[in-house]
């Protein structure tokens, strides 16, 4: 794990940020609807947009957790398709990458 300690720390910081943002969104989604029908329509449209953002955040949270698990179990940086090493530059640009450039481009 020592080879990717810095990557793990960056992932943990990003994870914490995403979790905080997701919590704010969830709190906003829990608010009761206004009694005014026109306000309800606006609130529902806003909620729909927030739900979309929340889904994206949750997907990234899951990918980060999986990347941290790969770091922990020693498979981080290994292409899930061909088994070759994923270049450090790619991991720095996309820390959740599971495939090397060659395999990612082939997909």
From TrEMBL:
Coiled coil: 1-28
Transmembrane segments: none
Source taxon at top rank: Bacteria
Zinc finger intervals, dksA C4-type: 79-103
Domain Zinc finger DksA/TraR C4-type: 74-106
rRNA-binding as UniProt keyword: no
Keyword Zinc-finger on entry: yes
Protein name: TraR/DksA family transcriptional regulator
Keyword terms, alphabetized: Coiled coil, Metal-binding, Zinc, Zinc-finger
DnaK suppressor protein-like N-terminal domain ranges (all copies): 10-71
InterPro entries in the record: DksA-like_N, Znf_DskA_TraR
Pfam families named among the record's database cross-references: DksA-like_N, zf-dskA_traR
